[in-house]
Every structure is written in C-alpha cells, then in structure tokens.
Design a protein that fits this description.
about 240 residues, alpha/beta, Rossmann fold, DNA polymerase, domain 1, 2 domains, six-stranded parallel sheet, 9 helices, 6 strands, globular
Length: about 240
C-alpha cells in the first residue's frame, strides 16, 4: 500500500465522537456544589474555558483568573482541591453517560463501522481521562469497544494538552504511519492546531461550544459526519496529499 494512501482515522473524543460538553458542564457544577463552593459555570463562561484543554487545567485556570480571593495557605490546598473537584466531576460525568445523557454524534458509528470493514486503522487521540473515554464508548459501542481501535492516546499517555501535538505524535509512532497516511477528526481550534502541528490533515465537526473557533486550516468543516463515507474521506485525503 502506498505510504500516502489513507490508512488510519484518528479521532478526538469530547465534542467529536460525542457532543459531551453539556454533560461535562453539568458535572463540573455538580462537583463545585459537592465541595460547598459558590462557583457556577454557565454556557457562556464554559465556552470561554474550553480554550483551556483538560479538566483539571480548566478548574485551575478559573481559580487563578476569576477567584483569586481564595488563598492557598500551605501550598498544597490548590492541588488537593483541584484533585477532589476533578474526582467528583469525573464520577458525575460517568453517571450522566450511564443514564443515556450522552450519545455518539450523527454518522460517527456508521463511519467507524465502515472504516473497520475497509481495514482502516482507527485510533483515539484525546487529552481527556481514560475513565471518561471508557464511560462513553462502553455505553455507546459496547463492552468490547476497545477492539475497534488499534491504539489509544489519552491524558494518561500525553500529559501535554492540545494544542500541543504530543498525543498525535504518539499515535503516529504507535501506528507506525506517516502523517500523510492519516486523517484526524476534531471539533475545536486547540484540537485542529494539535493535529496539524503533527502534520495530519483534519476534518472538523464543530459543536455549539466551538462553532466560533478559527478553522481556516481544516481540510473540511462539516456540521457532523452524517452521510460521510470512507470514499468521501479518501477523496478528501487525496485533496490534502496533492496540496
């Protein structure tokens, strides 16, 4: 197979495989209430906070930027509080997923199924936690969801968050493929910047929270993946390779 033929599809998770952000927002607010904080994020604020990749990083950014009145006396209070908040948030998010509050975006499951049938490698490149990935895909695909993916990169393997390309570079190394043989799927500007920094042409499916981001360098911008086929992807990939 030519090195530049399409051989792998690499997917972000939050916002791309599923429109998860409203569930994440609800889970963050639940966590704040559990810790007795008067913090409450609305959609406008959360949209701004999505510029920060990673749940713990988002909490810490908000604390430092917006709640500087909270003083860390012994130097460990911030770290401990952020860890507790994130643990509460993760548990709340998993409960929402199990309750059916989060589903795969239109066209995702059909495209994954066709890609597997066409012997394309499937990979995940996200900076969310392994727990969040498992909660979503176990519910959406089934208990054997991992068998669909050749490799998975997440917050446990890639501590440098998007837009840093670390997780994509890890996936290319694990797949043993050049970037020209892959397509990435993202929903945000940070994700797009990470994928393109790794040399991977990227298809964007924005959400309500990311629709205003700059996607100028994306290969394609689609409302969702409904009706998108592997033949479409191969055609788009050819466009990218020929540029």
């Amino acid at each position: 197979m030519p090195a530049t033929s399409l051989q792998a599809l690499i997917f972000d998770v939050d916002g791309t495989l599923a429109d998860t952000e409203r569930a994440h927002l609800a889970a963050f607010n639940y966590a704040f209430a559990e810790e007795g904080l008067d913090w409450r994020w609305d959609e406008t604020l959360y949209t701004e906070l999505l510029e920060i990749s990673g749940g713990k990083e988002r909490i810490l950014h908000y604390w430092k930027a917006c709640r500087s009145d909270m003083i860390d006396i012994d130097g460990s209070g911030v770290h401990d509080m952020v860890s507790r908040l994130h643990a509460h948030k993760t548990a709340a998010y998993e409960a929402l997923v199990k309750d059916g509050r989060v589903r795969l975006r239109p066209g995702v499951l059909a495209l994954l199924t066709e890609a597997k049938r066409e012997n394309l490698h499937l990979a995940i490149a996200t900076t969310t936690s392994p727990v969040n990935i498992a909660a979503l895909l176990r519910t959406a695909i089934g208990p054997d969801w991992r068998l669909n993916f050749s490799v998975i990169g997440d917050a446990s393997t890639a501590p440098l968050k998007k837009p840093n390309p670390q997780v994509y570079l890890q996936m290319l190394k694990a797949l043993k493929l050049p970037p020209q043989a892959c397509l990435a799927f993202e929903d945000s500007s940070n994700g797009l910047r990470a994928a393109t920094a790794a040399g991977i042409a990227t298809v964007i499916t924005p959400t309500h929270f990311t629709a205003s981001h700059d996607f100028t360098v994306a290969l394609r911008v689609r409302y969702d993946l409904d009706g998108v086929t592997v033949d479409d992807l191969r055609s788009w990939h050819c466009d990218a390779v020929s540029r």
